[in-house]
Structure formats: C-alpha cells, structure tokens
Sequence to fold (441 residues):
Amino acid sequence: MIKAESPKRRMVILSFDAVGAEDLSVLKKLPNFKRLLEQGALCEQVESVYPSITYPAHTTIVTGKKPCHHGIINNTCFQPEREKPDWMSDRRGIRGTTLYDEAMKRGDRVCALLWPVTGKSRITYNFPEIHANRPWQNVILKTILDGSKRYVLGTLPHAVRELKGIREPELDNFLEKAAVDTILRHNPELMLIHFLDVDSHRHQLGAAHPEIRRALERLDGRIGAVTDALARTKAGACHSMEDTTVVILGDHYQLDCHTVLYPNYLLKKHGLFHVDGKGHVTDYQVIAKNCDGSCYIYLNPEIRKNPIMTEKLTQNLTTILHELSDGVARIFTAQQARSLGADDTCVMMLEATPGYYFLDDHEMLTCSVSDVDQHRMKATHGYLPTLEKYQTFFMMTGYGVRKGGTCSLMKLWDEAPTLAHIMGLTLPETDGCVRTELLAL
Fold:
C-alpha cells in the first residue's frame, strides 16, 4: 500500500507597520479581524525591539533574535560620509538564518512582498522593499535586480496601474492585489506581506488622526481579500483552510512629536566633527546617527582603538550632551545598549523624551516639527519598547493555533520560534522562546 503524502502546511504573515496594542479596540470591531480572532489566539502586549523601528523589528520577526545578534541595528547604514545613507535592505546583512531560509531548505516556496531586508535573498517570489537613493539608481530596475526577476516583472503591471510613488493607500492597494494574485497563481507555503498604510499616515498626520481609523478599516479589507484568496486554493494536498495558519502582527507603535533634536549641532560646535562648504562631513571624532526616537553616538574607529582617548571623550560627551537635557530622557552606555538589544559598537545611546525625536543634520540645536523641511514627522517610533502605551500585538488563527489562547506579554523575538514550531521548523540560537500557551500542537 502506498503511504499517503502528508499535506503541506501554509502560513501567511501579515505585518501591519506601526499598528499597536492601542489599535486593538478598533480592530476587534472590524469584521475580518473579528472573524479570525474568534477562532484564534491573541497577545495584546508585545514589546518591540530597541531601537523600535521597521528594519530591525522585521528582521527580529523572522529570526527570533535581538538586533545586536542578527545585525540589522538600524533602518539605514552608518555612512557619515554620505548625505543619504543606504538602507539596510540586503539579506546578506542578516547574521544567521531566518524563518524563510529554513522553509526553503525544506523545499517550501516562499513569497515576500515589501518585507524589509530581503533584497538579494533567494526567496522564490520576492518583491523586496527597496530605496533608490543614489542619482544613478532607478527604483524599478533595483527592485528587479534585488528581487526575483521573473516574479517582479510579472508583478509590475499591477504596480504600474496602482502605484503613485510610495503614497498610501495606493502602495497597499498594489500589495493586496499582488498578494491575491500570488496566492491564486502560485499558492506558496509561506508568505510575508508588509503593509505600510498606518505607518505612513501616522508619520504625516499624527498617531490618533481620524485617517488612522480609515487606514485600519482598509487593512481589515485586505485581511478579507487575502483570506478569501486562500479559501479558493488548496494547501498542498488539503482541500480546506484547516492546514493554513494566518498571522497578523505589528512591528512597533508610534508616539506624537512636537520637537526635533540635532545632537550633531553640538558635536560640531565643540569641534568633534567637521564639514566642508557644502555641509558634507569630512572627518569626525564623534558623530550621531539617529533612529528617530533614539540615537546612536559613535566614535571614530581609530579613536576606539585608544582606550584613554575613548574614556576622555566619553566623559566630555556627557557634559556636552547635557544641552539637550529637556529632550533626552536617558543616556545609555554601550553595554546598556547591548543589554537592550541595540548596537554596542556605539559609545552611548540617547533615548528621546516622548514628544521629541532625533535627526542627523547639524545646522541648529532644536526645531519645532512644524518648521522641519525634510523628515518632518508628526509621530514616529524608535523609543524604548517598554514605554507605557507603546506596545504592539500578535494574533494568529488556523492550523496549530489554540482557539482563545492568550498570553499577557510577549517579546518580538518570541514570534519567530513560535511560528517555526507551527511550521515544523527549527531556528537555532534564538533569543526568544515558543509561546506554547498560544498553540494547539
């Protein structure tokens, strides 16, 4: 007798950028989220990573590691010589394996739509999140080169019809159509989809603007479109949704802002770095690199080799940065930064007082958000994930999920090992653990 082949499981992960625990009061009343939640499990309080920004967070979601361990410690690279640093979008920047790597090793097909830090990966169907910030770069060409070429070219007709740059909700309209089309045409075993509607509007309008509710309602409609497409297909040898897990999660939240801080103004004022006539950095002893609500302070690598000079500069910096005292809630040492999961190659790390955020320019000390020309944000992220009313959430339903399962608090790095367990995969050396109280396996 021929043994029946085991059905392949499916998992679809929908990431709602900047959607937090504070949004659950709305989400729970929306039809598609409510329908899935009634059969699923939920953690209403998930602490993000530090710094709590998109690229480190999404890398943690698929690795189960803190930023200091997986290597994606900011959204953009530390390139003080460049006015516009490169984004950390290349998969090769991640140390170790990921959920999608382990799935592909098993033979699963994977789709990623605008999932951060997947550029130049081996993902089967990959439309990576790419930023073309060099004069010689074209975003479409770079997406083709860094993604799955045939898949990107096949998906571009949707993009041409839907996209208006990175404006929302058009960008998420494209993602929804691309996701549905991919499910119906390819039916991959793992999908990673990154929706940015709420994040974009919170930056532009503020954390509680009326448009945020409309964006959440649009996201609920996208849940319905994706799950309807899943129901129209077969998960491996299976004819029902019973072998499919749908995951909906946030990566961080946002807080309203009124003032921008420029630590590099102080460092330049005290002769710790220098610029040319065009304002470009020519050399530095110390320089600041922002993470929105937090900020790394880095020493020149040559100075770091000299313990005496490093200690002297560190002591001086504490005094110098005191001029930002109204906007700086805490100053962390490199060791404290690492214990929080951040980059310990910094000499210290600044945590902004809520209402403030950091930028890297050096022409002034502070500025009202309303007067900012570039990178104006009425709300943003990057703050300590333990702040009050700053947590995100994690919800899943379907195969392997305990109906009504709950846990009081999760860390973002608990998500990957929990999802790997459902998929029957192993992720080595994670910082998190499998949250069995959410599972029915």
